[in-house]
């Protein structure tokens, strides 16, 4: 039997923490291992408990969810911990910085229980972006504000095919959809994704989307062959 997905809940509202705990603990294959009421407590518990997934509220006292996410995702001792950022609004100005800080995706707090459970499972398996159409909208909205800072050199060393795959990942396509679009096999797509993660030093697909937008390739697209 597979081990349960271990979840840490970080939110400054006790009622919401309780609701999330009930949902997680009533879902087969999941368990709540701790609750935090602020970002600093979330970091301390993450270091102590090393959960698989942290449900991270972005707006908390003492230390906000962005700073907490950055500290967790930059700590090698917590390399296996994935952060799922939670927000009330899909255009929350905190979302893009949270993804930059290392969050593997985000969801709205009013998502359906089924969607939240599915999101936790996706994040736990190492996949990344959730609700890709919403995530792309947030990233596109905030990333273009600082175009001069886009680190285009990060794409040096990628093959043309890898760049094509990166553009399609940024558009929210699944591996199967990318295979269909590029007329290549699914295992080949997975190989390209693994190569991108390695070459770009990205934790997951969410971080690949960040790179795609910050480098400009997501909006610029591929030049003619």
TrEMBL record:
Domain Response regulatory, residue spans: 6-124
- Ranges for domain HTH luxR-type come to 151-216
The record ties this protein, via InterPro entries, to:
CheY-like_superfamily, NreC/VraR/RcsB-like_REC, Sig_transdc_resp-reg_C-effctor, Sig_transdc_resp-reg_receiver, Tscrpt_reg_LuxR_C, WalR-like
Which sequence positions carry the modification called 4-aspartylphosphate?
Answer: 57
Keywords for this protein: DNA-binding, Phosphoprotein, Transcription, Transcription regulation
On whether Transcription is a keyword of this UniProt record, the answer is yes
Write down the Gene3D superfamilies for this protein, in alphabetical order: 3.40.50.2300
By its UniProt entry, which CDD domains does this protein fall under? LuxR_C_like, REC_NarL-like
Top-level taxon of the source organism: Bacteria
What is this protein called in UniProt? Response regulator transcription factor
Lineage here is:
Bacteria, Bacillati, Actinomycetota, Actinomycetes, Kitasatosporales
